[in-house]
Write a structure and sequence with these properties.
The chain starts with a helix and ends in a 6-residue tail after the last strand. The longest helix is centred in the first third of the chain and has 24 residues. The chain has 174 residues and is α+β, with helices and mostly antiparallel strands. Helices cover 30% and strands 37% of the residues. Helix 1 packs antiparallel against helix 2. The strands form two sheets. Strands 2, 3, 4, 5, 6, 7 and 8 form a seven-stranded mixed sheet that branches. A three-stranded antiparallel sheet has the order 1-10-9.
Amino acid sequence: MSRLMLVLLTMVLTASAVIAYKDPEQAARASDMVSELLRHRAAAKAASEVEVPRGQGGEFALKARINGIAVPMVVDTGATSVVLTYESAKAAGLPLELLDYNVDVDTAGGRTKAARLTLDRLAIGKLVERSVPALVVPHGQMKTNLLGMSFLDRLERWEVRSDRLMLHGYPERG
């Protein structure tokens, strides 16, 4: 909802309260209640959005947090899954010794094998998803971590506007 619509809604509700109550104190309380509700809604909306600027190379690069560890990633809508380099997976404390590299994947560098795993927690700013399917490639097979569709599909929506990628999560239910 645009800011203009919110202002108009506040004005209409305040005027309605004055007419309905004919009591300035009750109207003021109603106005305060509406204002608080609108502030809460705006804060919730802002908390569920992340804006990512386009890099000089045309990519959308960001810092994610995997199980609390900062990991650089590039958004890749062509990647079916989140894909991590071995090095990043190790830094995030993932159980690499238990992985089975049995998934064929095509990367920019060619064909390789990857291992499936599930990330307990993947956060981009205030957008947090749990139990995210991901792949890990062997040591040296990729230079960049990819934020693929196994994360993006969980969002309410994502869109590119000019040189900004907007990630919209679902608002938290209180």
